[in-house]
Specification:
By secondary structure, the protein is α+β, with helices and mostly antiparallel strands. The protein has 3 helices and 5 strands; from the N terminus they run ββαβααββ. It has a 5-stranded mixed β-sheet with strand order 2-1-5-3-4. A hairpin with a 5-residue loop joins strand 1 and strand 2.
Length: 106
């Protein structure tokens, strides 16, 4: 199980032992990470699980689908490495990666 460091907008870090094969969103929700609202439960229809990935991880993933791109156009503070955590599956290669959370999901 890779350890993922969820970093809140104020710099607080919550380490999560994530299960490979689950989404980042599910791992965060299971661990009670503040800042991941996940209103739609992972259906890619609300953008309340928006995160910023490290460039190396972002670049190693398949590109966002058109549906995810549409949802990302609705987030408050998008960045080049923005993703919806419900669309990112945890892999063993993510060990030690930091996932930054936006100031707000709304």
């Amino acid at each position: 199980m890779p350890t993922i460091h969820f970093v809140s907008h104020d710099g607080a870090i919550q380490d999560v032992e994530a299960h490979a094969g689950l989404s980042l969103m599910q791992s965060a929700v299971d661990a009670g990470v503040d800042g991941i609202v996940a209103e739609c439960g992972g259906c890619c229809s609300c953008a309340t699980c928006h995160v910023y990935l490290e460039p190396e991880i972002y670049n190693s993933l398949p590109a966002p689908t058109p549906m995810e791109q549409g949802m990302l156009s609705c987030v408050l503070e998008p960045a080049e490495t923005s993703r919806l955590s419900c669309q990112v599956m945890v892999t063993e290669d993510m060990e030690g990666t930091s996932v930054r959370l936006p100031r707000s999901q709304f």
